[in-house]
Every structure is written in structure tokens, then in C-alpha cells.
């Protein structure tokens, strides 16, 4: 692996991240110990942004993999490809990360099947190695390599959960939507609206979050609030912006849409 490979995964400018508790110090200590880390929390609450920020802060390359149920171990580790000269091995993202010393972020790891997830095991204990069985190579992870996974505790069912033998290889950090003041600050910064507008959006979201399990699978995420704010800052009326960014994506149920629409009208 060359420096060019490493350079393309390096984050050049600081990703804005508003700390919520002591997560930066906790993560730094975990990284110093090269401990694998699991970020738990609902969708759109800042997990991916946090990893991007930490990779930048630590000056390490970041390789992100969005996990899905069709993903196989080969998609992570690598495979032989056919070309005119015959077959050629191509490293998967996990292997590249282990070789160049990147932080490898497996986003929504429960989406992957358990037989896929187990390939990370030898990388996440004292061995820090990755066997490429088909190629007949044992990759020893670069000293800077670290594995990070994200996980939405709301989504998992008995069918879809990490095995204990996988879970118990990670330190865990809990994420959630921050308190009003902090979330408003984030929405104002990311969406380009004033604090007052941002706070109204956050209050609407909090109402929807109270409906979780009572007709909604999830409340409105910080991500959606940022979308609403961005539309408002582009000149869309707050009502229309909230409809498009907060209500329509969340539910198809007409009654629930009315309920959410009423919450929007309370504030705008
Ligand atoms: N603490 C935070 N600091 C800065 N931006 C945040 C924070 N939390 C959420 N956001 C905003 O919310 C959006 C969604 O966050 P993201 O990290 O993508 O969520 P997820 O938890 O699903 O990975 C980000 O793009 C960012 O605009
Ligand atoms: Mg994410």
C-alpha cells in the first residue's frame, strides 16, 4: 500500500461536531488502546459525524462501509476478479483499512448477516490479524488500524442482532438526540437558521419522539431537522419545509400525518 492510498481516505478539513458529553475523551482513550468501539443510538443523531470528526482529530484515514443484508464476507475482505490476464486479487475495504492503518467504520452493522460479521473477529482481539483464506495470506493489522461499528438498538429483532461473541469485542458509547439547547445549536449551525427557528424545529421533533412506539417507529432525527432548516434558509415557508423534511418521510399514515402537522402548526 502506498501513501496515495492512505491520503485519499484522509479527512482534510474539520468536520463540525458539537460534543454532547465526554465522548471525545472517551473515544481518544479507546483509540489509544486500539479498542474496537461500538456507537449505539437512533438514526440521524450524529454517530457518523462523530467518527468523521474523530478520524480528523486523530489524523487517521477513515474507511466507511454501509452494511446491508446482501453483503458477504468477500465484500469486506476482498475477492479474485477476472481480467484479461487471468485472475487478480482485490482487497475489500476492511483489508485496505487493516493494511494502511485506517479507522474502519462499519455503519449499521446489524444489517449484515452474522456469517459476514464474524470476519471481524480476528481483527478485534489481541491477534489483530485478518486471514484472507481464498488468497492464502494473513494480514497483520497496521498499528493505527481501529474498527468502529454503529448500531441502532431500536431496529434489532431476535433475527437481527449481533451475537454476544461479536458484541463483547467492543467498548460501547451511547448516543441519543441531545438536549434542546445543544440540538438547537447543531440545527442552527448545520441548517443556516437562527437559534429561535432551530429551537422550534427541535420542539416539534421532541413531540414526534414521544410518539415512538405509539404509531411511529422512530421520531424525527437531528438529520431531518437539519433538512427542514436548510429548506427554510432557502426561502421555503416553515410549514412547507416541515411537511417535506419532517412529516412526509416519517409516516404514510394519514392520522399520524395530521398529528404531526398539528405539532408543526403549534410552533409555526
Ligand atoms: N453532535 C453533532 N454535531 C454536529 N452535527 C450533528 C451532531 N449530531 C447530529 N448532527 C447533524 O445531524 C446529521 C446526521 O448525523 P449522522 O452522524 O449522519 O447520524 P447517524 O447517527 O445516523 O450516523 C449530521 O449530518 C449533522 O448535520
Ligand atoms: Mg450514520
Quick recap:
Belongs to the CbbQ/NirQ/NorQ/GpvN family. Residues 183-266 form the CbbQ/NirQ/NorQ C-terminal domain. The protein has 268 residues and is α/β, with parallel strands linked by helices.
Question: How is this structure best described in words?
Answer:
The chain is an alpha/beta fold. It has 2 domains: 168 residues, Rossmann fold (3-Layer(aba) Sandwich), CATH 3.40.50; 88 residues. The chain contains 12 helices and 9 strands. The strands form 3 sheets. Strands 2-5-8-1-9 form a 5-stranded parallel beta sheet, with helices on both faces. The chain has a two-stranded antiparallel ribbon with strand order 3-4. The chain has a two-stranded antiparallel sheet with strand order 6-7. The site of magnesium ion has 4 residues, from helix 3.
Mean pLDDT: 94
Reading the helices and strands in chain order gives HHEHEHEEHEHEEEHEHHHHH
N-end to C-end Cα span: 55 Å
What is the name of the CATH architecture of the largest domain? 3-Layer(aba) Sandwich
CATH topology tier name of the largest domain: Rossmann fold
Helix-residue proportion? 40-55%
CATH class of the largest domain: Alpha Beta
Helix-strand makeup class: alpha/beta
Number of helices: 12
- Please list the strands of the largest sheet in the order they lie side by side: 2-5-8-1-9
Number of E strands: 9
In what range is the share of β-strand residues?
A: 15-25%
Ligand roster: adenosine-5'-diphosphate, magnesium ion
What kind of sheet is the major sheet? 5 strands, parallel
Shape: elongated
Rg to the nearest angstrom? Answer: 21 Å
Number of domains: 2
* CATH homology group of the largest domain: P-loop containing nucleotide triphosphate hydrolases
| Spans where pLDDT lies below 50 across 5 or more residues | none
Amino acid at each position: 500500500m502506498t501513501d496515495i492510498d492512505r491520503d485519499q481516505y484522509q479527512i482534510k478539513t474539520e468536520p463540525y461536531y458539537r460534543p454532547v458529553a465526554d465522548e471525545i475523551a472517551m473515544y481518544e482513550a479507546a483509540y489509544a488502546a486500539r479498542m474496537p468501539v461500538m456507537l449505539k443510538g437512533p438514526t440521524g443523531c450524529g454517530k457518523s459525524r462523530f467518527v468523521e470528526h474523530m478520524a480528523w482529530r486523530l489524523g487517521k484515514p477513515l474507511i466507511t462501509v454501509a452494511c446491508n443484508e446482501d453483503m458477504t464476507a468477500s465484500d469486506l475482505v476482498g475477492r479474485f476478479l477476472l481480467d484479461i490476464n487471468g485472475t487478480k486479487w482485490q482487497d475489500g475495504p476492511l483489508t485496505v483499512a487493516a493494511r494502511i492503518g485506517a479507522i474502519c467504520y462499519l455503519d449499521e452493522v446489524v444489517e449484515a448477516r452474522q456469517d459476514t460479521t464474524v470476519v471481524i473477529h480476528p481483527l478485534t482481539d489481541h491477534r489483530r490479524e485478518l486471514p484472507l483464506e481464498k488468497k492464502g495470506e494473513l494480514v497483520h493489522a497496521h498499528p493505527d488500524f481501529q474498527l468502529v461499528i454503529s448500531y441502532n438498538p431500536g431496529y434489532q429483532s431476535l433475527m437481527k442482532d449481533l451475537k454476544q461473541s461479536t458484541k463483547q469485542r467492543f467498548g460501547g458509547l451511547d448516543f441519543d438526540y441531545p438536549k434542546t439547547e445543544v440540538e438547537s445549536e447543531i440545527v442552527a449551525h448545520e441548517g443556516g437558521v437562527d437559534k429561535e427557528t432551530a429551537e422550534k424545529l427541535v420542539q416539534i421533533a421532541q413531540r414526534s419522539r414521544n410518539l415512538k412506539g405509539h404509531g411511529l417507529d422512530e421520531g424525527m432525527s437531528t438529520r431531518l431537522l437539519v433538512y427542514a432548516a436548510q429548506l427554510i434558509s432557502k426561502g421555503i415557508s416553515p410549514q412547507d419545509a416541515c411537511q417535506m423534511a419532517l412529516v412526509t418521510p416519517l409516516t404514510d399514515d394519514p392520522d399520524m400525518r395530521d398529528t404531526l402537522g398539528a405539532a408543526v402548526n403549534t410552533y409555526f
